[in-house]
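dumping these here so i dont lose them again. two proteins, back to back, each one seq then structure tokens. dont judge the mess
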Amino acid sequence: MTDVPALLPLGPDGLLVRFADRLSEPANRAALAFRADLESAVNPGIAETASSLASVLVRFRPDVITRKALEDELGSMLARQDWLEASLPAGRRLWRVPVAFGGAHGPDLEEASDAAGLAPEAAVEDICATRLRVLALGFSPGQPYLGLLPERWDIPRRGDVTREVPRGAVVVAVRQAIPFANAAPTGWRQVGRTAFRCIDPGLDPSIPLRPGDEMEFLPVEGRTLDRLLEDAPPHGGAERFEIP
């Protein structure tokens, strides 16, 4: 295990604040909380921040602040508290998203369920009973990595690659779930599909999810999802609530 938190150089105008060298719930919470504090400080020398599963990228303006000065500032922030014990930032939302599991919409449900040691029906109940956090956005614009599922879902990726899953495919692996923003190849197992759009140029904002938001899957029948895909209601029929 690398010493954490760590402050690492990243290119000519970047620093990486790393809270762990692998995903864990406390490390992700630390990254979200640290980034929120950094954003609230409104430092003119900082051009951009972005959080990943367990770290925060900080891009700075070298004409405004030196790397050494920013390192000192970030180091002081890191020393201020134990970020692994930090509270999640305010302003997060809960999304309840309709998903059709199994059948044509989830061709790998049985395989994934077997890998998790569950019957398919129990697997769907297990997934839908878990409130998942948007750990990070990545791979494709707006696409969320959701977690963490119970430990029995620490299943590996497949040995081969599915040539293409459709937009909205819900795939699982390594205790995470992803609703695909666009059609793409994947080595994760497709257990369901949603009409929720991770990016929608017709909406403002076009990317509805933010890191730290939470999501619950609501199981629906395949024909219900087919109607949602055809009618294309805002957010694919999902409901959004503010988290107190």
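---- next one ----
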Amino acid sequence: MDIQTMYKEKLTTAEEAVKVVQSGDWVDYGWCSAVPVALDHAMAARLPELTDVNFRSGILMWQPEIFTIDNPAEHMTWNSWHMSGIERKAIAQGFAFYNPIRYSELPRYYRDSATPPRVAMFQVAPMDKHGYFNFGPNASHMAAVCERAEVIIVEVNKNMPRCLGGFEEAVHISQVSKIVEGDNPAMAEMGGGGAATAVDEAVAKYIVDEIPDGACLQLGIGGMPNAVGSLIAQSDLKDLGVHTEMYVDAFVDISNAGKITGMRKSIDKGRQVYAFGAGTKKLYDFLDENPECMSAPVNYTNDIRQIAAIDNFMSINNAVDIDLFGQVNAESAGTKHISGAGGQLDFVLGAYLSNGGKSFICMSSTFTSKDGTVNSRIRPTLANGSIVTDTRANVHYFVTEHGIVNLKGLSSWQKAEAIISVAHPDFRDELIAEAEKMKIWKPSNKR
């Protein structure tokens, strides 16, 4: 059967497509900008008839309609691989939960899982002449999802960029059960956390000074990584490469400034490699049909062995807070969940294994609470319930607006001294006193 005939036979409405979902099903709902829209509206209409439907997804960029039904907890559970602000609110409503996992493990998890999705529904780019629906900027783990799902429903969006890769960036029509031609919404945009602050720029300068020509970059999301990107775009650096979990707007700016060639990469030479991308329209336009950019599954992009194989790998990520033992929390505020493990630890480990590689954990030294109180992000110990994203044995460079320190291999008293040296001056004496109580301070340490 030719692909056009197959397409016509599988084409249906969203309302008809979601009838396959039954009570007790596990349903994969795409990832990031691939979360369905027309199918979601139809699912919200059907969901009150069902109970115990388990949805899996992550990094929501808009509130799904299924979240807005009456008493969603009576009908569904939302299981997130990585929380966004929208999902954090759903936690408080009692129907959303985080699935702790290293992001790089997701494809294997799906392939080995005892509870694979019965139904998968997600947005895709229009079918190409060979019968493939491209996952857009969301290759991530989607091929593995499709391998295990009993029913695959694709929602075609003409605005979804076609992101080239090489493997696991698309699903063939022969695997697809149903096709829905959606409402073609514009791609959801995600900013970089606002304009860079003076603190962001100070942190960025410390990091950029450590980056050599020919380095390969991984940037996280947020003001500080974007400030690093902006500074790189204005720098004299050249022949940079990209191998990252998330493709963000900063990479487009660096590329347009002529700083990225990828020609010094030992693998995927000349290609900007990423697992998923989210940003503004300029990012989606840049990724669309761009052979320089390589959409790949996350078990490739975040594989420590792949990262380590690239010389001068530079990993740059944010965190919430750090304690004097060097434990980094990038996931929660105490027991209040914020995001997830993601790939931060993979890149921290992989960058250090790279010849000449460095990983940077950066944060502002303080934050201001709602009541106006200024608090230190450098704490004696992490708050009760805080998640250790990066253990004290693995952190390499730590950066605040007050300086940069290399923590690798330091004794506990050296580490405490180094971390306190980049704390806000108003909190240093207090932190020293706490370090003395915890027996990780020597009388000979600098005060």
